[in-house]
Amino acid sequence: MMRATLRIILLAAVSAPAFASVAAAPCDCKKSLTPAEARKAAEAVFVGAVVESHRELTQGGYEWRVRLSVEQSWKGAEGDDVVVYVTNADCSVSFEAGKRYLVYARRQEGRGRLVTDSCTRTAPFEAGSEDLQKLGAGKQRAAKGT
User: What are phi and psi of 76, to 5 degrees?
Assistant: First the structure.
């Protein structure tokens, strides 16, 4: 009996670090990109304010659909508004209505739509100051209604 209890305690002690490491690292980006690498890999790079966002059911499960009003663009954001999807739940970016974001988006293979996550360097505008310096002057959009 004592031997069985000791085995259970030993097994729990050995297994605990493995389970803890899975829970402690929910987002695992393959590579940390520099701003230049992220720009090169992206299909669209822009600063935009969230106009609307909502979850929708798609083939892969629930995803966030976010529409942003483009304020400044470096690549691929030609219209006044751009829609991006947040597809990677572990590495998702939380978009809040009215807030500004620096977005790096890529085309989703097989679907052609723009997708983003935190591995692309997409972040709230305030957190993107290093990126903004490295990106340089982007193309400014005229304010709506002017």
Answer: 70, 0
